[in-house]
Amino acid sequence: GDGYQQRRPAGLNAQLKTFQVVFRVTTDAEREALSAFLSWHGGYRAFLWKPPKHNRTVRVVCREWSITDNARYSDFSCTIEQVVR
């Protein structure tokens, strides 16, 4: 939609997390695969992800990411947001 988000001070939705993460890939194949994965999900399709130092996977979206290419690797800087269904 129109960017509307419903928020309430109580309940599960109030405790959703946002993560700033960097994924480093070292091959062209990994770069293409991660780029295709993020593009296919388009910032709105949710996927399961296990945050660092957590025991369980969570449902998330990645609405924003950028790629920094270096001589030996590429860094994907991603904002990962936990969502409900």
Number of separate strands? 4
Spatially, the strands of the biggest sheet line up as 1-4-3-2
- How many domains in all? 1
Unreliable stretches: none
Strand content: 35-45%
Q: Please state the CA-atom Rg, rounded to the nearest Å.
A: 14 Å
Give me the number of helical elements.
1
Helix and strand sequence: EHEEE
Shape: elongated
- On the 0-100 scale, what is the average pLDDT? 90
Straight-line N-to-C gap: 16 Å
Question: Helix fraction?
Answer: 10-25%
- Largest sheet composition: 4 strands, antiparallel
Structural class: alpha+beta
Task: Explain this structure.
With 85 residues, this protein is of the alpha+beta class. The chain has one domain (13-82). 16% of the residues lie in helices and 38% in strands. It contains 1 helix and 4 strands. It has one helix at 28-41; strands at residues 18-25, 47-49, 58-69, 74-82. Strands 1-4-3-2 form a 4-stranded antiparallel sheet. A hairpin with a 4-residue loop joins strand 3 and strand 4 (74-82). The longest helix is centred in the middle third of the chain and has 14 residues, at 28-41. The protein is elongated and about 45 Å long. The model has no long low-confidence stretch (mean pLDDT 90).
